[in-house]
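User: I'll paste a sequence; please echo it back and then give the predicted structure.

Assistant: Echoing your sequence first, then the prediction.
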Amino acid sequence: MSEATQWQTLGDIAYREIPLFDLTWQQSPGAPSPFQVNALRILTSASSHGGPIARLTTSLDPSSTSKKFLNIHTNTGSLFHSIPFPPPLLFTNPFEVPLIVKMGFTQRQKLVIVYSDSHVLVYDAKSIAPIIPPFCALPQLKNSSIMVTNVDIFDNGVAILASDSSSALVEFFDEFDPYSVVLSAHASCRVVPAGETSSSSSSSSSSTPSKNSNTNVFPPTLSIFNNSESGGNSALLSQIDSTTKHYALITPLPTAKSASSNNTAFCTLAVLSSKFTTNKRPEIFFSTSDNSVQIVDSFNLSIVDVDCRSRIQSPITRISFAPNGRFLACFTQNAILTVMDINFSTKVLDFDAGGSGSGQPDELCWCGEDSVILHWRGQDVLMVGPYGDWLRWGLDNGDKNQNYDNNNNESENTKDNDNDNDNDNGNDNDNDNDNDVVEIICEIDCCRVITNSSVTMLQRVSPTTANLFGIGSVELGAMLLDASDAFEKGDVGADEAAKSILRTGRLNVAIKDCVEGALLEFDNNTQKRLLRAASYGLHFGYKRGERGESDNEPSQSANFVSAALKLRVLNSLRSQSVGFCTTVLQFDRLGPSSVVARLVDLKRSKLALHVCLLLKLDTATLSHAAVGLAEALVVKISGDNNDNNNDNNNNYDNDNVVEDADVVNSIVKLFDKIKKLAAAANHPTATCYAKVAIAAFEAGKKGVAAKLLALETCANEKVPALIHIKDFVGAANAANAARDVDLITVVLQEAERATSSREEFFRIVVTSMPLGVFNVLKVYYGQLVDPAPLMGLLISARKFNDAGVNVCKRGLRASGSREEGMRLMREGSRVFALSKELGFQKSCVDEQMVLEVEQHKFKEDWGMNLVNRGLSVSETVIAVIEFAATVPRDAAKILNVADKLCKKFKIPEKRLWQIKVTGLAKSKQWAQLRLLGEEKKSPPGGFAKFAKAGIKFGLGPSEVNRYIEMVAKADERFGLYLANSQWRMAAECCKTDPRKVVEVKLLCTNESDKAFCDEFLRGFST
């Protein structure tokens, strides 16, 4: 029977139903079965691109003590991960636990659960606790009667709408996302990093806040956080540190204000992905009670009313965007399905679904880009085409009895007794029929329908498939397929059929259609049939010399080999043991590396490794798969050891316990084997023992983790792993050996968080960590405003001199109050007093404090500010003398103050005269300077200082000459005369040295002075 006979036509477009898997839900050990509780609620949600299925089983009885689990299944129902639910201490009162409004996956397989009080939980496929601490998207909803009414989970986040029209957009990011989105976020946004918890979950085990909360060694990871050129809202980035793997960006939306001002209410919401917006930020569509739609731009929080009231006859209750982002489907209160373009300018379809079901549909989504899927609980799936054509799909697959595999291979008929029909999100399973639809997932080229007993795909028949298998098709691909079938049967006419294709000159087109058709099929026999046809065409073409090769396109043979390899991978993914049901288009959209990562999450690392080798993926992807396989080995061995230890406690033999060295040897042998396989496939690879060590540590094999980290050679992998196992000293040594300041920074940050006090942290840094780490911390502390951290570090290292000097410098440079500077100076004196060898430094600081007291007193007496200028004693005296020139009447009193300062600080006489000469000359108090020179016949230091000060500060040449004449030494007078430009007097000082006269002649510019020098030189010759 032709495959085309099983297709269903929707107008001119054919669709097909592809049964994928029969489901047998495997339960986690200890989970409640429907016979163990009075009322059971099962929430189901599936990830896109053929991803896993999440199934949450909870009791509706708040007093029930049964364990609750969040189970992650493959598409065959196999359990590969189980999470205790809810997180510990999330809700302290079991009778006040809010309802779960929505559960769903993002594109990155993050499982999001939203409660009616806006609490948000985020898990990944391998975590046992939320990867982001639980938080409230709308904090004002806590302990209030306002409830969350609508939730839309989109490709990288969730949007939440409450009954009071308040709303928020939550986006999830990880360490690999660029920080540009956070930097450009609106000022009202907030970030929930890995260290923040909600008030009701502050003591949850999912977060470990720092015990030493009064310190923070380093701000965020990258220098961009403190870069003034980065712009934007960098304050948000300060909440993200180097170890933040996942964080949420919460944007409050101004919908409540809009609803109040327009006297309207919002009915539902949907998020348009940033992939389809101009500013690369999500846009949120809100339907209003007055039959319109308002669009909120999350970039600037602007609201635009599209005013579609003339096209929509009643309020919209559901919105769904097409996978290409060009169209949206709306379902209204009066049961009209409307399809419009994204700008609401063109209406594509109005479909009256009033007779299809009662009330609002449980599911509204797209099947590819050409049809819309509607489903009401207890009814068939309704598909609506672009011209109003419709189809009903009765998905009657699998056994009528649902199976629960409880590890004892017992199967029980189950019945869901959930009577709660308030949740209309489409993921509540509260019916008796195992074939009732539980979840419909929109994919880029199909939709996946999950019932209690089966997984089915509804897909548009591609044009290639229609050309190959259409009834009476005369396309080239169909002709080549028929010729190949005839050749397999030994029909002599097969060669003639192939020749007819060859005569058209389009044999390559037929081969290409067969190869593409094979990639689009799920049935292995059909795939082989199409590939045989393509192979037959290739052999026939080579035989006739038509190879179809060109410089710009790969040959048909290369395409054939690539398709065969891809089919091997796709068939392995779709196997019953893996349950990864993806189409070739979804595979290409994800990319092989993402598929490998998902396989590792599904605990199928061995298959992921084979995929890497088969497709020759990059080294990083291959290493990720190898690490996943090694982690699985460690976990398995650790589990076996734990079982043996339990047996030993029951007096059984314990000979099967595997030693740590044997585990390490097994992992080394595994990596060696992977290297050999990669070498055989001509593929480079790299080992990463650090990630395996983390898995070993988590499994309780600390000795294995230490031995594996000793084998790790990459510092970028080794240091984070050592931090993870709390070996901060080892991490510091590794980071210091790598000479990597960024790694040292991360080590210090994490070590500080893990310590209970600052003193303990300093002790670890000083006594156990390398000097390079100490210096990095010292440099950073030196840049802080608060001197306490640096002082504490230096004192812990007994570097009292450095600590005292640092704090005293800060005191002298203090720009605040005088008291603050004095406090720092007193602290510096105290630090110097800690060492007997620093007595001189202490006395200097003490004298400086006394000096500042005198400066402050002078300011109070005379109004001149000498405080906080960092002046020494000499500079202070000079400043006082200069100030005397501005107050001639009180000059004598001010000069007397200067003398008292000199006596108080015991300035030596010679230095005292130098200070007075400099101060008087600088302030041009020439009369006082002359009186000072006349006080003594031979002042300390001589009159040369008078002459030099006069020359420097503009004293007349004749007065300067008077001081020069009093200088006793001729050589000294010669230099002073030259400085004063007195050439003849300088020459006269050289009665015995003609070379100095020549020097004077060369310096003077006046001809008469030169003649005088010549005459003086002739006197030497005679």
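DSSP finds 35 helices and 33 strands in the chain. Confidence is low (pLDDT under 50) at residues 194-232, 397-426, 548-552, 643-656.
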